[in-house]
């Protein structure tokens, strides 16, 4: 932190207010300071000095963002679904990490999907007009230099960086822009039916508290979730970008496994994160860098364990693009480059299950088909190995394979790693696959270190293989085919990377 920490937001300019007879003394709000700040305050001379001497930095000749046509089409679909109703979709606010530091901001998926904008405090409002709606994007304007906000406010531009002017925003996003600080009051006075996407902006929700219902708001959230089930061409392109960067991130990890052995799983996490931050916005979710028995913990994100030669590394990670689309890929790699006989047997069973699952992904198929196909293969192997009593039909009917497979075989993928989560069951899990859907296929077998129902040599081995699959008009396309999957190909790939 720097001197930016020294002064908190100032709503008014003390020097200006003192000279203004219209402002009563009790309305003056002194500049708030940190308890242990080094500066006692701001002199009138410094306040005046900071108002002038700044160049005009307005940006000209801006072109619309790459997905402007797609976001306009999405807003049109939303408008058609809720005619005559005011629709309010907030981006969300900064969240405190600790004391006076915030988490990195990520706009709500609904807001980013409809606007392409990613700044905190933004709100998209669709006002009913005739047979459709008029869209307005409400944003914070440039920091005010007259009242000192730009250098006194903790979120002023001098401290956190320049933001677009409202005029610039209109050009970029193709939506009329207004000052968000005026929105809450306007919404309090609004009449007619209103819906809001909840859970992102408490201030906006408070302004609408007597105008909305949970049931109606949930209908809005569900519609926006289901709208993302089928991806447009822009989205498919972004997902491929995310996957391509993820492939390079996996290659990065293999090249430094010796350094991870000398340190911990954290080295793997940091290595992949570097690729995600250099080529994308972030990781799409907490990377799972699970070595040895940690591979049996499905969401192992502590990543603080040892990396040992002879063990397996289950790496489940994905790069998120600058437009918020994330990959979600898993490979289970032999840390020393070669699978043991037992590791290979378990890995090949999961590979065969994944092959069956991927083959079941095609237009017109039931969403559940790929899961059922993969689970059948795993159940067959477990019976074959004598780990569970058959027949296979009995195992599947009772779900007995789940002791070692644990999770479903995949999920929708997009702007969320578990995308479209609010969609209705009948359109998602009980739905039918269509071209443009993107989902993961990720079977796994996990033999917990303390599982006394399996032979000792199985214990502590966990294997998952996950790929991102696009449903096409005539079948499917594996977006993550750039990473080897078959056990012999994995070994050859690792040997080539290690040189």
Compact summary:
The protein has 499 residues and is α+β, with helices and mostly antiparallel strands. 35% of the residues lie in helices and 15% in strands.
Strand order of the largest sheet: 6-5-4-1-7
Rg from alpha-carbon coordinates: 27 Å
**CATH fold-level label of the largest domain:** Creatine Amidinohydrolase
Structural class: alpha+beta
Percent strand equals 5-15%
Give the total of beta strands: 17
Largest sheet: 5 strands, mixed
How many separate domains make up the residues? 2
Percent of residues in helices comes to 25-40%
Question: What does this 3D model show about the protein?
Answer:
The protein is of the alpha+beta class and 499 residues long. It has two domains: 63-227, Creatine Amidinohydrolase, Chain A, domain 1, CATH 3.40.350; 233-498, Creatine Amidinohydrolase (Alpha-Beta Complex), CATH 3.90.230. It is 35% helix and 15% strand. It has helices at residues 14-18, 44-49, 68-81, 109-115, 149-152, 157-160, 166-173, 183-188, 202-207, 214-227, 233-255, 257-262, 265-279, 341-359, 369-384, 392-398, 402-405, 487-498, and strands at 86-90, 96-98, 101-102, 123-129, 132-139, 177-179, 194-196, 282-283, 288-291, 312-317, 319-320, 329-334, 438-441, 444-447, 461-464, 467-472, 475-478. It has a five-stranded mixed beta sheet. Strands 9-10-12 form a three-stranded antiparallel beta sheet, covered by helices on one side. Helix 11 (233-255) runs antiparallel to helix 13 (265-279). It starts with 13 loop residues before the first helix and ends with a helix. Its EC number is 3.4.11.9. Residues 1-39 are annotated as: Disordered. InterPro entries: Aminopep_P_N, Creatin/AminoP/Spt16_N, Creatinase/aminopeptidase-like, Pept_M24, Peptidase_M24B_aminopep-P_CS, X-Pro_dipept-like. Residues 66-205 form the Aminopeptidase P N-terminal domain. Residues 19-28 have a biased composition (Acidic residues).
């Amino acid at each position: 932190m720097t001197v930016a920490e020294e002064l908190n937001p100032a709503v008014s300019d003390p020097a200006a207010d003192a000279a203004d007879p219209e402002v009563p003394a009790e309305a003056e709000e002194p500049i708030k300071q940190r308890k242990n700040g080094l500066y006692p305050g701001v002199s009138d001379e410094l306040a005046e000095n900071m108002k002038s001497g700044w160049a005009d930095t307005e940006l000209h000749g801006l072109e619309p963002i790459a997905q402007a046509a797609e976001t306009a089409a999405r807003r049109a679909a939303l408008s058609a679904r809720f005619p005559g109703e005011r629709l309010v979709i907030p981006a969300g606010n900064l969240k405190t990490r600790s004391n006076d530091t915030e988490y990195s901001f990520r706009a709500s998926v609904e807001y980013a999907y409809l606007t392409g904008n990613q700044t905190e405090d933004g709100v998209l409002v669709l006002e009913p007009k005739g047979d459709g709606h008029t869209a307005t994007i409400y944003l914070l304007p440039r920091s005010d230099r007259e009242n000192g906000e730009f250098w006194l406010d903790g979120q002023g531009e001098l401290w956190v960086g320049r933001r677009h002017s409202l005029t610039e925003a209109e050009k970029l996003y193709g939506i009329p822009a207004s000052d968000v600080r005026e929105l809450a009051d306007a919404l309090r006075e609004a009449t007619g039916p209103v819906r809001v996407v909840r859970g992102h902006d408490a201030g906006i929700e408070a302004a609408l508290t007597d105008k909305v219902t949970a049931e109606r708001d949930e209908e809005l959230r569900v519609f926006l979730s289901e709208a993302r089930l089928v991806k447009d061409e822009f989205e498919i392109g972004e997902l491929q970008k995310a996957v391509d960067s993820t492939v390079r991130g996996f290659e990065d990890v293999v090249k430094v496994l010796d350094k991870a052995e000398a340190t911990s799983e954290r080295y793997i996490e940091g290595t992949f994160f570097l690729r995600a931050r250099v080529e994308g916005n972030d990781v799409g979710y907490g990377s799972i860098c699970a070595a040895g028995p940690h591979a049996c913990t499905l969401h192992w994100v502590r990543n603080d364990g040892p990396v040992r030669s002879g063990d397996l590394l289950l790496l489940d990670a994905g790069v998120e693009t600058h437009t918020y689309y994330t990959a979600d890929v898993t490979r289970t790699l032999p840390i020393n480059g070669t699978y043991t006989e037992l590791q290979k047997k378990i890995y090949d069973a999961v590979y065969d299950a994944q092959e069956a699952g991927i083959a079941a992904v095609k237009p017109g198929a039931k969403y559940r088909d790929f899961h059922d196909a993969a689970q059948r293969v795993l159940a067959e192997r477990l019976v074959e190995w004598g780990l569970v009593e058959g027949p296979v039909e009995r195992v599947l009917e009772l779900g007995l394979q789940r002791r070692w497979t644990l999770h479903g075989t995949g999920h929708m993928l997009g702007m969320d790693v578990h995308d479209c989560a609010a969609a209705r069951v009948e359109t998602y899990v009980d739905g039918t696959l269509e071209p443009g859907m993107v989902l993961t296929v990720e079977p796994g077998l996990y033999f917990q270190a303390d599982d006394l129902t399996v032979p000792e040599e199985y214990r502590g081995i966990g294997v998952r293989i996950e790929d991102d699959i696009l449903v096409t008009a005539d079948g499917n396309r594996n977006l993550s085919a750039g990473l080897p999957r078959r056990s012999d190909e994995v070994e050859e790939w690792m040997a080539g990377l290690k040189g």
